[in-house]
Amino acid sequence: MPELIISISGMRGIIGDNLHPEIAARYGAAFGTFLKESGKNAPVCIGRDSRPSGSMLASALASGLMSIGLNVLDLGIVTTPTVGIMVRRLGCAGGVVITASHNPIEYNGIKLLLDNGIAPAKPLAEQIRSKYLEGKSKPVSSIDCGKITLVEDPDSIHIDKVLSIVDVDSIAACGFKVVLDSVNGAGGRPGVHLLQSLGCQITQVNTEPTGIFAHTPEPTAENLKDLCTQVTQAQAGIGFAQDPDADRLAIVDEAGRYIGEEYTLALAAKLVYMEKTGSAAANLSTSRMIDDIASKRGGRVIRTPVGEANVAQAMIENQCIIGGEGNGGVIDLRIGPVRDSLVAMAMVLQLMAKTGKPVGVLADEIGGYDMHKSKFPADMQQACRIIEKAKETFTNAKVDESDGCRFDLPDGWIHLRTSNTEPVMRSIIETRNPELTKQYISAVEQIRNQIG
Ligand code: MG
User: Fold this and answer.
1) How much distance in Å is there from the Cα of 447 to the middle of ligand 1?
2) Which fold has domain 5-152?
3) Whole-model pTM above 0.90?
4) Which of 8, 84, 203, 328 has the maximum number of C-beta atoms within 10 A of its C-beta?
5) How far apart are CA 185 and CA 209, in angstroms?
6) Given this model, what pLDDT does residue 122 score?
7) How many whole angstroms from 244 Cα to the centroid of ligand 1?
8) Using the 8-state DSSP alphabet, how is residue 30 labeled?
9) Which part of the chain is CATH 3.30.310.50?
10) 217 CA distance to ligand 1 middle (Å)
11) CA angle, corner 226, sides to 249 and 326, nearest 5?
12) In the chain, which residues fall in CATH 3.40.120.10?
């Protein structure tokens, strides 16, 4: 049986194998105890993606929280960013999302949010984790147990916020033809609602929140071949693909070409920097496209360790006008500190409306990079030695060691980092020249082989 993963971003496991309702109840109790000990007694809201196991885990998690004396607000099936928004809107002590994001249906997970809508930073996450592992929860007596209340229509609050940051009339005037593939996750219902509000003609694909994923759910090129065909068949201007909890968005252009998740944040940044200037934030593995866009407008990009909470925290500290991650995750603090596919869709449509250009043309204007992602087995010791060796190799690079090591070279960059969840090292390389990318790939391979 594989080990249940309890990382700083929460818990993820396989239902009926290593993730059971008892575990969720205990985790809920540990989170509740942590919140109460931090002086937070307000209710906790719980949302879930559409997986069939979601209701079971959410109920168990709610039981754990109520056993500590906290009330629970049930958001039902919602996107992950909706939970981030509702935590703050409802003045909650914290939030919980029941989701395993892009993992297959067998998986589910529990993601915790603090009262600011952001996942706890590492030291706080460690406190919650040790409370769970040591069973140090503090149940209340009968009269003090929490209650559960259903929240009506959280989607509308989310959608209204997204609509408030774009020019609805100018988008609607374009009458965009859009194909939306929500992989039968949580994003279908609000996605359709948003696109209808923006006057789009929608071809719906897998927009029922059944949790029976119509294809492998990660929104990568190999999993979206059908969407590419559907965009062409529908003669649509754009295709959108959400992951099951709808925090990531991938885009297919008007020619049925998968343009890649890296472009989602870059296109959103392009729009924001047309309207204003300021700082942006992105993780160290994200394409340089956002730096190019920001620098043209006198802005700068703050690079953070990988992980949504790191980006969101940097955005708040630096009052960033846009931020996110290269996996299709766009964050706009006007909406919430969580990656949000609804924000991303609205922004890309706004960019198309504002420029009058098809999305494929917009992507080509900001692109031209060649990115290569790979992973290979390496334990912590090997990873450290690989990084040391790489430092000796790439002596002309500017080095950032806040998450593994990123080497910024004049003609590209290489990011080597260990995974939080498995003994592997990830290598991300980006240049403007495929031949150079190949050279860097083989340089990393050589280092790896030397370490053995
Ligand atoms: Mg996700």
Assistant:
1) 33
2) Alpha-D-Glucose-1,6-Bisphosphate; Chain A, domain 3 (3.40.120)
3) yes
4) 84
5) 5
6) 86
7) 6
8) H
9) 370-451
10) 10
11) 25
12) 5-152, 165-366
Q: Looking at 9, 63, 67, 101, which residue is catalytic?
A: 101
Query: How far is it, in rounded angstroms, from Cα 288 to Cα 172?
Result: 32
Q: With pLDDT > 70 as the criterion, what percentage of the chain qualifies?
A: 99
Measured CA to CA, the distance from residue 409 to residue 395 in angstroms comes to 9
Contact 206, 216 (CB under 8 A): no
| Structural fold of domain 370-451 | TATA-Binding Protein (3.30.310)
Q: Mind listing the pLDDT tens digit for each residue in 228-265?
A: 999 999 999 999 999 999 999 999 999 999 998 999 99
The model's pLDDT over 388-417, given as tens digits with 9 standing for 90+, comes to 999 999 999 999 999 999 999 989 999 999
pLDDT tens-place string over residues 297-308? 999 999 999 989
101 among known catalytic residues: yes
Find out if CATH 3.40.50.300 is the number for domain 165-366.
Answer: no
Are 328 and 265 in contact, with CB atoms under 8 Å apart?
Answer: yes
**156-160 long-range Cβ contacts below 8 angstroms, 24+ apart:** 156/193, 157/82, 157/85, 157/86, 157/89, 158/78, 158/79, 158/81, 158/82, 158/85, 158/86, 158/190, 158/335, 158/342, 159/190, 159/193, 159/194, 159/197, 159/342
Residue ranges in the chain whose pLDDT is less than 50 = none
Q: Count the alpha carbons within 13 Å of 17 in the hemisphere toward its beta carbon.
A: 14
* Spacing, Cα 248 to ligand 1 middle (Å): 6
Tell me, what's the pLDDT at 1? 65
For residue 102, the CA-to-ligand 1 centroid distance in Å is 5
Q: Which residues contact 408 (CB under 8 A, 6 or more apart)?
A: 397, 398, 399, 400
Cα 239 to ligand 1 centre (Å): 18
Tens of pLDDT, residue by residue over 188-219, are 999 999 999 999 999 999 999 999 999 999 99
